[in-house]
Amino acid sequence: MSQPEQAMKRIFICGSALQGQPDHDSLQFVRFLGQAKTRPLYRLHSAGEGWHPAIYEIGEGGIAIPGEVYEQTQEQFDALCANEPPHMYPADIVLESGEVLTAFLYPQELIEQNHLPDISHYGGWAAYKADLARSLP
Known about the structure:
single chain
């Protein structure tokens, strides 16, 4: 008798684990499905002294955040959750296609309390990091 197919979970990545970013190796054993963007329902901030993004859903004034969609097993997802930075939590997000996936959000209250820089105007994490790299001597 063969083992039943393992349920797969689709996730949206929009920060330091994107292709070309320093934490991408954390996704080396999961399946890349393609590029995607959220609906313009979110704000993007820099947390951990620029180490990772902090996003949250907002009613008005949000942006569409670019990212990547991956498919992984529940075991791989649990391992990814265990390695997320402090305060990050999995939650549903809505892609511009209407598909609902899991992403890692950050509590808006902590963003406001800690005055984390709003980097939404860059249009995405990779663009923000590229701009920072150009600014270095």
